[in-house]
Write a structure and sequence with these properties.
The chain has 345 residues and is of the alpha/beta class. It contains eleven helices and 18 strands. The strands form six sheets. It has a four-stranded mixed β-sheet. Strands 4-5-6 form a three-stranded mixed β-sheet, with helices on one face. A hairpin with a 2-residue loop joins β15 (285-287) and β16 (290-295). This is Agmatine deiminase family protein.
Length: 345
């Protein structure tokens, strides 16, 4: 650890809320807005069964519209808080706060520079989102620390005990002149981690994050890793994901033990307007008492849910229809950011 008691909690630790931003006509969802809203409503219904939901909306009219849709789906609106702020897009995994905690009342909202995934998209409003949430009094007992270094929440996984898992493909794209050692030092210092594990292999067609770890491999309690496998030798992902599986098998815990690995099934190719979409089952969201698992209308959906349930024993498994999300190159985890218990006002 660094010189502080701060640490990056694991996602399975107790949460105060889940944070999302509602899609609207000025976001990239405009062309299929009604379709994607069905996923957001299903997500809101699932989250509020277990804990509060904070919904960022562009204005009061959008908030009222979202409330109408949620009410029709019998969402528990007593567990929903709306916050009006401007935003470019709705991928809050990447523009939302990476929250470190020391104890029940000491938190740090770590605010890395958000560059629209390496300058692919405009991101000025998204980069200011965390400051806006602070000004809106969303948080209790939290300092706001800006870090002038590009990193997205989807690019890192934490086991809550000082280990961070990430991908070289993503971070070398963001920081092409920095070495792995330099980046490891920055990650350790800014996230108060004791070590950084890197994957060199693994990617998904249709993913414009440059191989975020949360589309590929996820820590689970008890020294487990859940990962997206590919058993179709004819698929262009096969060799790369096989190599990633071998890398995961070679990783060791801080105590020198191999991780227990949980390979996820491979969905059949989903193609939209001649474009392969990234249907990853690893992009699930853990909440209090449950895991929300993406479903794509594929025969592998139920098997993926079963395996994720095995890796997260004692939690209810709730499938959320996510096929509309992958049209914009992300899935369930990408549109959400969990907030640790005690951090919200």
């Amino acid at each position: 650890m660094t010189d502080s008691t701060l640490r990056l909690p694991a996602e399975w630790e107790p949460q105060a809320a889940v944070l999302i931003a509602w899609p609207h006509a000025e976001t990239d969802w405009a062309e299929r807005l009604a379709e994607v809203e069905t996923t957001y409503v299903a997500l809101a219904a699932a989250v509020t069964r277990f804990q509060p939901l904070i919904v960022v909306v562009a204005d009061a009219a959008l908030g009222a519209h979202a409330q109408t849709l949620m009410r029709a789906a019998k969402v528990d609106l007593s567990r929903v808080r709306f916050v009006e702020l401007p935003y470019d897009d709705t991928w809050l995994r990447d523009s939302g706060p990476i929250t470190l905690k020391a104890d029940a009342v000491t938190f740090q909202l770590t605010d890395f520079r958000f560059t629209g995934w390496g300058g692919k998209f405009g991101a000025e409003q998204d980069d200011a989102l965390i400051g806006g949430l602070v000004d809106a009094d969303v948080f209790n007992h939290a300092t706001h620390k800006r870090v002038d270094w590009a990193l997205e929440g989807g690019g890192i996984e934490s086991d809550g005990e000082g280990t961070v898992l990430t991908t070289w493909r993503c971070l070398v794209q963001r920081h092409p002149v920095q070495s792995r050692e330099e980046m490891s030092t920055i990650l350790r210092d800014s996230l108060h981690a004791s070590r950084v594990l890197w994957l060199d292999y693994g990617y998904l067609e249709g993913d414009d994050t440059d191989a975020h770890i949360d589309t590929l491999a996820r820590f689970a309690p008890g020294e487990r890793i859940v990962f997206q496998a590919c058993d179709d030798a004819s698929d262009p992902h096969h060799d790369e994901l096989q190599r990633m599986a071998a890398e995961l098998a070679a990783l060791r815990t801080a105590d020198g033990r191999p991780y227990q690995l949980y390979p996820l099934p491979w969905a059949r190719p989903i193609v939209d307007e001649n474009r392969r979409l990234a249907a990853s089952y690893a992009n699930y969201l853990i909440v209090n008492g449950a895991v929300l698992v993406p479903a794509y209308g594929d025969v592998a959906d139920n098997e993926a849910a079963r395996i994720i349930g095995q890796a997260h024993p004692g939690r209810e498994i709730v499938q959320v229809p996510c096929r509309p999300l992958i049209w914009q190159n992300g899935s369930l985890h990408c549109i959400t950011m969990q907030l640790p218990a005690g951090v919200t006002a």
